Amino acid sequence: MTDSPSSRTTPGGEGPRLLTAEAIARLVGGELRGDGGTRVSSVAPLDRAGASDLTFLAAARYAPLFATTRAAAALVSPEWADAPAEVRARIVVARPHEAMLRVLPELYVPSARRPGVHATSVIGRGVTLGRDVSVGAHVVIESGVALGDRVTIDAGCVVGEDARIGDDSHLYSNVSVYARARIGRRVRIHSGARIGSDGFGYVFQDGAHQKIPHVGRCVIGDDVEIGANTTIDRGSIDDTVIGPGTKIDNLVHVGHNVRIGALCLIMAQVGIAGSTYVEDGVILAGQVGLAGHLTVGKGARLGAQAGAFGDVPAGETWSGYPARPHKEALRAHAALFRLSGLMKTLERLIDRERQ
Amino acid sequence: MTDSPSSRTTPGGEGPRLLTAEAIARLVGGELRGDGGTRVSSVAPLDRAGASDLTFLAAARYAPLFATTRAAAALVSPEWADAPAEVRARIVVARPHEAMLRVLPELYVPSARRPGVHATSVIGRGVTLGRDVSVGAHVVIESGVALGDRVTIDAGCVVGEDARIGDDSHLYSNVSVYARARIGRRVRIHSGARIGSDGFGYVFQDGAHQKIPHVGRCVIGDDVEIGANTTIDRGSIDDTVIGPGTKIDNLVHVGHNVRIGALCLIMAQVGIAGSTYVEDGVILAGQVGLAGHLTVGKGARLGAQAGAFGDVPAGETWSGYPARPHKEALRAHAALFRLSGLMKTLERLIDRERQ
Amino acid sequence: MTDSPSSRTTPGGEGPRLLTAEAIARLVGGELRGDGGTRVSSVAPLDRAGASDLTFLAAARYAPLFATTRAAAALVSPEWADAPAEVRARIVVARPHEAMLRVLPELYVPSARRPGVHATSVIGRGVTLGRDVSVGAHVVIESGVALGDRVTIDAGCVVGEDARIGDDSHLYSNVSVYARARIGRRVRIHSGARIGSDGFGYVFQDGAHQKIPHVGRCVIGDDVEIGANTTIDRGSIDDTVIGPGTKIDNLVHVGHNVRIGALCLIMAQVGIAGSTYVEDGVILAGQVGLAGHLTVGKGARLGAQAGAFGDVPAGETWSGYPARPHKEALRAHAALFRLSGLMKTLERLIDRERQ
Q1: CA separation (Å) from C327 to A340, A344, B192, C92, C332?
Q2: Is A118 a catalytic site residue?
Q3: pTM for this structure?
Q4: In a domain, B353, yes or no
Q5: pLDDT tens for the 355 residues of chain B, in order
Q6: Is residue A338 one of the residues assigned to a domain?
Q7: Are residues B195 and B96 both part of a single domain?
Q8: Neighbours of C94 (CB within 10 A)
């Protein structure tokens, strides 16, 4: 398991790109110290950087690693402008981490797409393929599907009958799209996500849970990203809808008929029960659960593991179980832990009152 | 991304079916108003219905949409029997939503199955295929597997050695079945579910977590439905068993040696630790967690996000963490929030008592 | 759906192995009673054992099943050394369950691996295959990947560009490995796990959530086991790292830049947010959530469903939401439920104090 530095320089890239320290300083609006001609081709944290790496130092607790880093160049905040280190160049900026985010797209150019349809893929009748689509090995595209221009379908995906996938969207490996799903443009769907599966709806009749047919669709807006192994059910009669620009993390569950607005952030392992409405700009932290048929108002936030059983007003931050305004929840938890230390005295008081 | 109405009329169907308003009225026992010859071929909510759609109005908050719907026909409750609208026919019934569920199976006929074994599938030695099985593209069926009659295995599934799948069962795309699993009749397993994976069992010995062999099986009863990306481990020595008629939602985890009875409803993201016994007719709401080696009695219900660390008596409804009878849990939460507003006065009382 | 006993004797094995009761007694250091020549070829619980099975009895509540078991032989604790039963041989040991774990590997020999590369697999340019690798049907191995000796890749897996997989590792069916992941030796990755997917990182700019490039890697140590449908994101700049000997259950989420130490146990549906550090030997019970950028100290334990929003000290056991030392959490919950029964009296006291 050798781990050559060069293997880190091209994350799916088209070959190493090089930037000089001078170019980086210009790019991030920083002040150059040292050899402006120093070249880097990749980035790495202080302790693992090597001779072709750019690194960064933003927090005091990592300062000890700076003295010994073997990086070629470093983005540092002003307090470390002159700290002793072996780096051949440093670029002094107010926010090294943000500066790094600006450097990344210059250094790491996405893989050149390889348009074409792999010989092992299986394409059904009446499938429409846009220009420059890339369909990987062992992909299955059922009949009636339409793929837009420059769509990328990685190996092992299955796209069900009559589904639509918009321009520039990318399905990573082993994704399943059920029949008739509508996926917008520039959507990224990570490995193992399931789009448009049957909703969980039954009516108890004649001694059994009778399945409710799901004839609605699953409609994913433009610029949505969907995490690995996330599941989004289609609607029963209405559609399940994810609004444009919304980002969904891994292992999230979205039930049938749910509507999620634009530009939401839904973190890992969130569960949203059927027919709930999440308005624009909502943030749901990890493992949040929303009961069915409720509304989370525009711009509201729910803290990690919160469980909401009623509407959450627009703009508010709620947390806890059952979810309450965050300050109330904090106060209640604080009260609980204080009280638990006072129980003896309290019970004495109460006993006396009862006598 | 055009979205022709016709694409909604045949969700995996065998082509559009048509029903007249008169036929619908007869089917649901409703009163026909307007043109009984009006034909519909699909259903849609009020705001998205078109000229070939049946829609429904059941709740006052959707009434404004009724006036402007472009649906051909509508199921409405008595209070909207005469409300102004453009629909050519309305069918008046007490419960329009339930009536709609009765119409759906008439309008949406499941796809005609296409029996046959796709040329790209890989079938191992000694595999037994029932009559009219349908095996999709890139499916892998390992040696010794037996599929019953009319079994459907969608694209990308992998069925491990010596597994059994009963008549009329359906595995959606990209499902994995581990070796020796037993799957009953009329079972539906959604995309990405993993059936019979190794249980999480280790013994710490010689400085490492030594794996306990899992030689039990995973046994799925008749008429079970299993959601997308759900995982059900096989047993260590005993079996993991899912009883007949039980329905399991997406992203659920069922640990090794768990026994789930008949006709349970297990909602999304529930986790059931090893060797726990869930009796018949239990309902576990979303994100519930059950610790290992406990029993949830017949017909019990656990509220969303409940965490049970001990047995739950038959027929009771419990909630919260740690789970308690639902009324107690509600009372405790109410008390907590009231108390947190009274802390100043309470602490004054306690201080005085202590002096 | 016949279920012949022989189908249970060879769970992926190389054919039935037989052990005599005498050999079993010797193996587990137990005392033989009855016919030492009795042969068994498989194990089963008391109520389902047949004429070729070894069973065991360790707990009084299963004793009634012992009298009627049809097993050939049984491991029993001393109190049942002479209990009436039909078994032809019994082996008396202090801990029958542990003894059983010692018997299993003798009886159930893992399948003989079948080295070779299946004709339907797709192997990219520049792929390095170690000795005796086994690559299953419909596997896709992208360019630049290196597989060590005796690596097993089951059907339907996709291994991304330049990934490395160490000697003797095993990917079960339908696993996805993203580009550049580093997987150690003797690693087992169960069906549907996603290794090295993009982390959930965005910066809000120009009215949209702009994606942060993820150029770090996902590095899995030796002897790690990863459960079905678990997702482990790669790092943004730094790496995501899972330490050697750590075992991860099903449906777990590990965020970007997380570092998990050696020999941890991470149970089902745990979620770990970005940049959190889980030190060696930590145990996280089911559905635990860890917020980002915190440290769980060496050997700490978190109870099921705990939600940690700050560091957890080494060696301690914490539980609840927000997580607290377990004893404090228990005391607080007990206080809460006692208080809720005393609210009337308490409010009377408080009212009087306020007057």
Answers
A1: 11, 17, 40, 40, 9
A2: no
A3: 0.93
A4: no
A5: 233 333 323 334 445 689 999 999 999 999 999 999 999 999 999 998 999 999 999 888 889 999 999 999 999 999 999 999 999 999 999 999 889 989 998 998 877 788 999 999 999 999 999 999 999 999 999 999 999 999 999 999 999 999 999 999 999 999 999 999 999 999 999 999 999 999 999 999 899 999 999 999 999 999 999 999 999 999 998 999 999 999 999 999 999 999 999 999 999 999 999 999 999 999 999 999 999 999 999 999 999 999 999 999 999 999 999 999 999 999 999 988 888 888 888 888 888 877 7
A6: no
A7: no
A8: 12
Q: Which of B 313-352 lie inside 8 A of A, CB atoms?
A: 320-321, 333, 336-337, 339-340, 343, 346-347, 349-350
Cβ A138 vs Cβ A119: under 8 Å: no
> What total number of domains does chain C contain?
2
Query: Is residue A303 within 8 Å of A326, Cβ to Cβ?
Result: yes
Q: State which residues form the domain around B30.
A: 6-107
A135 & A201 share domain: yes
Asked if A349's CB is within 8 angstroms of B11's CB, the reply is no
Has residue B183 been placed in a domain? yes
Buried/exposed code over B199-231 (b: 16+ C-beta within 10 A; e: otherwise): bbbeeeeeeebebbbbbbbbbbbbbbbbbbbbb
Contacts of residue A314, Cβ cutoff 8 Å, sequence gap at least 6:
A279, A297, A298, A299, A300
Residues in B touching C188 (Cβ below 8 Å): 198
Q: Strand pairing partners for B325?
A: B318
CATH number (domain holding residue A78) = 3.40.1390.10
d(CA C318, CA C302): 5
List CB contacts (< 8 A) between B7 and chain A: 162, 180
Contact between chains at A156 and C166 (C-beta distance less than 8 A): no
Does the beta-carbon distance from B101 to A338 stay under 8 Å? Answer: no
Residue from the list A122, A194, A332 with its beta carbon closest to the beta carbon of B337: A332
Query: Predicted ipTM?
Result: 0.92
In a shared domain, residues B87 and B152:
no
Residue A337 lies in a domain: no
Kindly state whether residues C313 and C194 are assigned to the same domain: yes
The reply to whether C58 and C124 lie within a common domain is no
Q: Which of C104, C118, C269 sits opposite B269 (nearest CB)?
A: C269
Residues B237 and B256 in one domain: yes
The helix (H) or strand (E) run that includes residue A353 is: helix A343-354
Q: What are phi and psi of C328, to 5 degrees?
A: -60, -45
CB contact under 8 A, B343 and A338: yes
| Whether residue C236 sits in one domain with residue C144 | yes
First to last CA, chain B: 76
Residues 160-189 in B contacting C (C-alpha not used; CB under 8 Å): 160-162, 164, 166, 174, 176, 178-180, 182, 184-185
**What is the CB neighbour count within 10 angstroms for residue C289?**
27
CATH number at residue C190: 2.160.10.10
